[in-house]
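sanity check this record:
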Amino acid sequence: MAAGAVATALILIAMGRMEWLRSAWLADAWRQERRLVLWMALLQTAAGLFQGVRYHAMLRATRVGTRMDESVGATCVSTGLSIWLPASPAVAELLRLGLLCRRGSPERLVRLGRATLASLMDRLLGLFTVFLLGSAFCGMALWRGHVPPGAVNVIRVWGVGALLAAGGVAVVARACMRGAAAAPQAVPQAAPQAVPPPRRRARCLPRKLGAALAALRAQAIRPRELLLPAALAAACYLLSGLVMALSIRAIGGAAPFAGVMAVLPAVFLSSALPASVGGLGAPQLAGILALGILGAEPAVIASAGLLNAAVVLGAGTLLAAVFLPVVVPDSAFRRT
């Protein structure tokens, strides 16, 4: 965590020394384009809620019985807390699984295995959507002439690479959907008793992990059950791209929407690096490099990325605070 924070700070300091971060532009955006910034926050909040609904649909596909408020709450809380940490997607999944697995439930291990499959499929579906739509928008940017002549080959290669990556993700997702056998109805567990000593708990851990993995392998997903999650994943991607485009406009810059959507996969992937904390650092650098190919000014993209990160942090933290009382009392993090 400390290394990620240091790397983020070094990237921001380097961009500041190169005069790519303009605090005056951010202040002007709030004073002159306040309504636009508020629209960005509203759209980002909608994207966060759509992610929760998408995960709820994926949980239903893996036969995990949960209420809508639990699914949306676990997603919003885990995302809102993890964006403050390096490598936030991995941290978010661990938090979300902990929030969904009720302590003391007789089928907790089966639920954990199925929820793990839902989380895996949710991430794979998100990656597939990002790469597929990114490739499509590369073609649109080329078709509409938004790419400078010197960058045409780069965008072509990026579009083909994104399409191939989407195909690879689809193959992995299809393999995860097949399952190995009929899902077990329950995993025998001992009756509730006093907390065992540490050595006994350590010996029980492999058995519990094996039961959870067996539930994960046994689960199968029908392709038609992914239609709603796929539509919601596309909506989240479009909303995120729209928020990024509006942040560039609020700063006073100009970038074609198709171009922003074409390079957005690079920004998304960079946010998963340990050199990104709170959406700062690596995503701004990736945006500068990617949109710079399309002729965007580095200072505009860096400042717009900082504004976008502030909106994402604010909206995510607000959603986490709203749903925290809903999901924590029944989660595995509840103290007994």
Observations:
- Residues 2-13+55-181+209-326 form one domain.
- Strands lie at 276-277, 280-281.
- The radius of gyration is 22 Å.
